[in-house]
Amino acid sequence: MFTGLVEALGTLGARSPRGPGARLEVRCTLERLALGESISVNGCCLTVDAITADGFEADASQETLAKTTLGGLPIGARLNLERALTLDKRLGGHLVSGHVDGVGALVSRSPLGEAQRLVFRAPRELMRFIAPKGSIAVDGTSLTVNEIEADTFSVAIIPRTQKETRMHDVGPGSPVNLEIDLVARYVQRLLEGEKV
Fold first, then answer.
1. Does domain 8-83 have CATH number 2.120.10.30?
2. What is the pLDDT of residues 3-48, one digit of tens each?
3. For the chain, domain boundaries
4. Model confidence at 194, in pLDDT bands (50, 70, 90)?
5. Which residues, other chains included, contact 2 with Cβ-Cβ below 8 Å and sequence gap of 6+?
6. 80, 121, 139, 187 — which has fewest CB within 10 A?
7. What pairing do the DSSP bridges indicate for beta strands 135-138 and 175-180?
8. Using CA atoms in the order 52, 54, 55, 61, what is the torsion angle rounded to 10 degrees?
């Protein structure tokens, strides 16, 4: 579990084929990494498999590469990183599992005072889980939804979020990993009832 509060920015150092998946080399300044720990990388929960002098390596399955942005990011791309939540931390964002529900894209960016208004297009099947004033994780960053339309939603990015996450790098058309609110997912499951 994660909070969606980005702890550090890293970069994608390399992506090497490994069976049907790939080995990702993440360069970062996270300290005291441990083998086997979970790290949210742009919203994808990955397991540290090797610790290097300048970061860590993790394996990504074929499905992860196909269903998230990790398979197409260019080498050198900045990455949002967050270590797994511990019970002694404040939950300042929202509960984020690190299981990406789909890939969206930035439609537009416009000034909103000192902040920025970002409009994202989401897969239609995810839009029913997105609600005004609800939470969503975009590339692992916990954000509050301001408005929704048929297949888009908007958020406001404050200057600190712009500076401390990769949101500054996201331009119109850029793909982003989306994770819907965990509570919304379970509410939908309860409303559907048990199907056999």
1. no
2. 999 999 999 999 999 999 999 999 999 999 999 999 999 999 999 9
3. 8-83, 102-192
4. low
5. 40, 45, 82, 83, 84, 85, 93, 95, 96, 97, 98, 140
6. 187
7. antiparallel
8. -70
According to CATH, what is the number of the domain 102-192? 2.40.30.20
Two tokens, residue 67: 């269903």
46-104 pLDDT, tens digit each: 999 999 999 999 999 999 999 999 999 999 999 999 999 887 777 777 889 999 999 99
Token digits for 16? 């090497």
Same fold, 8-83 and 102-192: yes
Distance CA 25, CA 15 (A): 6
